[in-house]
Amino acid sequence: MDSPKKPAHKYKRVLLKLSGEALQGSDEFGISSEIIEKISEEILHIHKIGVQIAIVIGGGNIFRGVSGSSIGMDRSTADYMGMLATVINALALQDHLERKGLITRVQSALEIKQVAEPFIKRKAIRHLEKGRIVIFASGIGNPFFTTDTAATLRALQINADLILKATKVDGVYDKDPMKHDDAKKFEELTYMEILKNELKVMDATAVSLCMEGNIPIIIFNLFESGNIKNIISGKKIGTIVRSST
Fold first, then answer.
1. Are 146 and 201 in contact (CB under 8 A)?
2. Which of 198, 123, 182, 191 is nearest to 163 (CA)?
3. Collapsed DSSP state (helix, strand, coil) of residue 146
């Protein structure tokens, strides 16, 4: 009798965190069609091998609540504007994914029935089980919280095995590798090391939630082709953050 075929992936269900800025590429603002196409291809590759995929996307390429409040705008108003920007990005990504034949659902923490479902935990999990890609928009629906925190909260709610934090660099460094040639890359870190050393991975609330839920985070370079698939297959890419190294 033949032994069962070993799956081609280490993780069954993952949450991919994309920043809004990642979508703009080298443009000053907005959505780069080249970048969103590249991201869609990466998602398609891991979907084909049976991975369940949820996505949380930021809105900084269109509007950042923190930037709005820094010029005197009411912080709550600015944050709600930022949440609406994430809906625009979610719909753009949904369109690209569906043009590749993938079935998707956008769930929004703000009620916008014409374009997105409301966030319902059980429904989101059911979509994932059916092989649909779920894109979570509008953060958590409340001001004063980042999309990193939203990503962690949604990962906990859907019982994700891993958070993939997409960045422009290939991991976490002790200082900005774009400015310092002697910047040291960390292969592994603990949640406490992130918090104690105030490393710019995610905000403290998001890291604390990951620590409480014991969800590993892998920080990686989004723009290197094949990185997501390689991570899913178990290869060491970027920096992994977990309870112990």
1. no
2. 191
3. coil
CA 122 remoteness from chain centre: 20
* Residue 131: pLDDT over 90: yes
Task: Give buried/exposed letters for 60-70 (b at 16+ CB in 10 A, else e).
Answer: bbbbbbeebbe
Task: Tell me, rounded to whole angstroms, the distance of Cα 245 from its chain centroid.
Answer: 23
Q: Could you tell me the pLDDT band of residue 245, with boundaries at 50, 70 and 90?
A: low
> What 8-state DSSP symbol labels residue 184?
P
DSSP state of 125: H
pLDDT per position as a tens digit, 162-185: 999 999 889 999 888 888 889 999
pLDDT of residue 120: 97
Secondary structure of 195-229 in the HEC alphabet?
Answer: HHCCCCCCCHHHHHHHHHHCCCEEEEECCCCCHHH
CATH homologous superfamily of 13-242: Acetylglutamate kinase-like (3.40.1160.10)
Identify the sign of the CA torsion 140, 216, 11, 85. positive
| Number of neighbouring beta carbons within 10 Å of residue 176 | 10
Residue pair 103/133 in contact (Cβ under 8 Å)? The answer is yes
The domains of the chain are located at 13-242
180-218 per-position pLDDT tens digit:
889 999 999 999 999 999 898 899 999 999 999 999 999
Q: Which two three-digit tokens encode residue 211?
A: 């620590």
CA angle 62, 118, 91 (to 5 degrees): 35
**How does the average pLDDT of the chain come out, rounded?**
92
